[in-house]
Design a protein that fits this description.
Mean pLDDT of chain A: 91
Shape of chain A: elongated
CATH superfamily of the largest domain in chain A: Cysteine proteinases
Structural class of chain A: alpha+beta
Order of helices and strands of chain B: HHHHHEH
Number of strands of chain A: 8
Oligomer: heterodimer
Structural class of chain B: mainly alpha
Number of helices of chain A: 14
Organism (chain B): Halomonas colorata
CATH class of the largest domain in chain A: Alpha Beta
CATH architecture of the largest domain in chain A: Alpha-Beta Complex
Radius of gyration of chain A: 24 Å
Largest sheet of chain B: none
Low-confidence stretches of chain B: 21-30
Protein name (chain B): PA2779 family protein
Distance between the termini of chain A: 76 Å
CATH topology of the largest domain in chain A: Cathepsin B, Chain A
Largest sheet of chain A: 7 strands, antiparallel
Largest interface: A-B, 83 and 58 residues
Pfam family, one (chain B): DUF6627
Low-confidence stretches of chain A: none
Helix content of chain B: 55-70%
Shape of chain B: elongated
Number of domains of chain B: 2
Strand content of chain A: 5-15%
Keywords (chain B): Membrane, Signal, Transmembrane, Transmembrane helix
Radius of gyration of chain B: 23 Å
Distance between the termini of chain B: 50 Å
Order of helices and strands of chain A: HHEHHEHEHEEEEHEHHHHHHH
Chain lengths: ~300, ~130
């Protein structure tokens, strides 16, 4: 053990040097962010729920859910999201608990620019921070509600503080330790500005898993309205429309998916199956031939259907 | 719980083998007209559908185990597992111990050295532990 001591000391000095070098760094925002945003934004209508002990997860969820009009208090949320053995709440369950209350949880892109843009749109953002250092972590959830651009400060509802302001650089240092993790809560059928197509797809798909495709239909439609040429969104919309008893519209959506991505075998297969169901064997054959010619898990089924009909 | 898991996986494997037998024996059986789901496309075809299914069910059983061990109420465990998407269930099953748990709990009973270090990093603007540094 003794021989390790000089190394430990060296490591300590090295780390401090690193820290000192790092402290000069401040998050650089894009010029476009400075130009596009109002200097001061604060969504004062976000309700505040103070955390008790280690309950920042439930408290944070209470704030964003009540903001969405879901009436739920911290005590109801604790058994749904808090892990007694870990003295905290983990990220997957934060998202899952939002869905239990018939709301969608959209992850945001992890940059300061994206965060500020969401806040400028009036959307409160749940953020995960490590308030301490990686070697001695203090993980924490808070709700970002606004910023002051000239002052370079962020405004949060955090812990026991209803209005916690901290500099962009300090916040970004704590946020970066969670890989800048954050999400926005939204009603079904709405898609907050600035959410990427991929993040929206994952969020709506997860919602669909527990509430079913009919309940997810309006959200898929919102996604299509925002990203009409995204093949996966068209595919997802097709499935939801089919579940909702609208096969004609579903076929149109699968057709659109194959137009935007001619290599999407699953869309060709679904299109083929629907055309078979609609008694259009010739058109079905075209689609199934496409599916069978593209390598993937759909190939076998497409071939079998071709053999039978 | 471990034995339960072993039983469950044996049962699952047996069930899947049995249910897949008639299909293998009678290739001319009429095809199901089920559409390919959005979730299976998003998950990609990293594994065969059956294996994927087993993994999902096992992952959920695992998460159930772990949540119970972490002190979650018995009445709540099922609902919490059900609320997870397949991807989240797998993530929880594989790395619950490593996942950061947001707590943000007040005073930390830390060593004096840690206290000093965090005090310094707080003053430097790298951390946000002690409110009195600002």
């Amino acid at each position: 053990m003794k021989t390790l001591l000089p190394y430990a000391r060296f490591a300590g000095v090295f780390m401090l040097t690193l820290l000192l070098a790092a402290c000069a760094r401040s998050p650089v925002l894009l010029d476009s962010t400075y130009e596009a945003l109002t200097p001061q934004v604060e969504n004062r209508t976000v309700p505040f729920f103070a955390q008790t002990e280690y309950q920042c997860g439930p408290a944070t969820l209470a704030m964003v859910l009540n903001y969405q009009g879901v009436e739920v208090d911290v005590d109801q949320l604790i058994p749904q999201v808090f892990l007694p053995g870990r003295d905290g709440s983990v990220q997957p369950e934060m998202l899952a608990t939002v869905r239990r209350h018939q709301q969608l949880a959209y992850p945001i892109r992890g940059t300061m620019d994206a965060l500020l843009n969401h806040l400028a749109n009036g959307d409160p953002v749940v953020v995960m921070q490590n308030l301490s250092l990686p070697i001695y972590p203090m993980w924490h959830y808070a709700v970002a509600i606004g910023f002051d651009l000239p002052d370079e400060t962020l405004i949060l509802r955090s812990g026991e503080r209803e209005r916690h302001t901290l500099s962009f650089s300090r916040f970004d240092a704590t946020w970066a330790r969670s890989d800048r993790w954050g999400f926005i809560v939204a009603d079904p059928g709405t898609l907050p500005e600035g959410i990427t197509a991929r993040n929206a797809l994952e969020a709506i798909s997860a919602y669909e898993e527990i509430h079913g495709p009919k309940e997810a239909l309006s959200s898929w439609q919102a996604l299509i309205a925002r990203y009409p040429s995204n093949p996966l969104s068209q595919f997802a919309l097709g499935n939801a429309l089919y579940a909702d008893g609208q096969p004609e519209k579903a076929m149109a959506a699968f057709d659109a998916a194959t137009q935007y991505d001619a290599q999407m075998g699953a869309a060709w297969l679904n299109l083929g199956i629907l055309r078979l169901q609609q008694n259009k064997p010739d058109e079905a054959r075209d689609a199934l031939m496409q599916a069978a010619s593209i390598e993937g898990s759909w190939q076998e089924r497409a071939q079998q259907l071709l053999d039978e009909y | 719980m471990k034995t339960l898991r072993a039983y469950l996986s044996t049962l699952l494997i047996a069930a899947l083998v049995i249910t897949s037998l008639p299909v293998a024996a009678a290739p001319a059986a009429p095809q199901s007209m089920d559409l390919v789901s959005t979730q299976s496309v998003l998950a990609g075809d990293r594994a065969g559908a059956d294996r994927e299914k087993i993994n999902e069910i096992l992952a959920r059983a695992d998460v159930q185990d772990q949540l119970l061990k972490q002190g979650v109420d018995l009445d709540e465990v099922d609902a919490r597992v059900a609320a997870l998407s397949d991807a989240e269930a797998q993530q929880m099953a594989q790395q619950l111990d490593q996942l950061p748990a947001g707590a943000g709990g007040g005073v930390i009973g830390a060593l004096f050295a840690v206290f000093i270090i965090l005090l310094i990093t707080d003053i430097l603007g790298l951390t946000d532990v002690y409110p009195f540094t600002r």
